[in-house]
Amino acid sequence: MPTPYIRRRDITEETFRSAVDQAKHEHPNGWRARAAKILGVSPSAIAQRLATRPDISAEVFPHPQGHNVAGVSTLYDTDGKIVSQWVKSKAGERTPEQWAAHVREAFADVAPVKPIPRPKAGNDRLLTVYPIGDHHVAMYAWGEEVGADYDIKISERLLTSAAQHLVHCAPASDTALIVNLGDFLHVDNIKNETSRSGHTLDVDTRYQAMIHAGVKMLRAVIETALSKHRHVKVVNVIGNHDDVGAQWLALTLAMMYEKNPRVTIETKPGKFHYHQHGKVLIGLTHGDTGKPEKIQSVMAADVPELWGATLHRYWMTGHVHTRRVQEFPGVMWETFRTLAPGDAWSRAAAYRSGRDMTAIVFDTDHGEVARHRFDVGMLK
Ligand SMILES: [Mn+2]
Questions:
Q1: Domains of the chain, with CATH numbers?
Q2: Ligand 1 centroid vs 126 CA: distance in angstroms?
Q3: Ligand 1 centroid to 320 CA: how many Å?
């Protein structure tokens, strides 16, 4: 009776392995023929199948160490018993299965990038702005001296927690604007100084540790925002602590997200940035280059067309680590607090401020319509 033809790929690895085990148990000397019977295939199909399985073929076809079985020729008698067999082996060549195992091993500790699905619903009338006040990553503060500890780890926990809370509270506005208001990085060179004034700073601790943590934190904020908002725009404002750092930070993020159509990283040079949302115009600058009285009219001078096309205009600034809101003709000025505590220098200079981060929601026609706040105390 002819053996029914079964394609080798129709037999699962599990079925094949268990048939081989059963056959070896029942007929230790004629197990290949027995396995062929169990599976309803020809004995040569078993031999071919074994040749594709280096782990099993290593057990059954003796061959030199470091070689792989490249092929097997078997001569059977009329009872299905093996009369003779050629085992062909090849040195050094890896099977596809071995390559796959090597690749798996090499990438074992790399966490897979999870694509963040585009939110299904979105409100195109709304814009949510997440201003990040002077975060001073790598600033060191000694709690006993200034009232609260601060280092790289604490700064990361604070910012990622605040972002998660605020994104959770925010409406599903189509667009999110994440604004690093400047002084995101505490030091600007390996001498632990600012670039312009050369102030010596209290630092935790190495430049490379700071930039690793800084990029990681901003990435976490962006990706949290992507879970709620269809489009995320990021502006990195240059501060007086990160004249140089803010520039490479923007380029780094721009390259990181260049293939993601849902993320826009502003790379326009200069210290003043503008974002229009319907009748809303938002100006962004650190605030170290002039008092609000001087800067407020810069908006009309820089972007007269946008000034003319809008009704609700806002400046968002950092630098002073304290909340101040001031209304000028045609534009509001606001400075934001920071999540970071004061360092020894600012405490000695008698600066005292609350610590928080906010998310502000704007409507295309009516300007600011809602505001959410994360207080540092909420972390505990
Ligand atoms: Mn500053």
A1: 8-106 (no CATH), 123-379 (3.60.21.10)
A2: 30
A3: 7
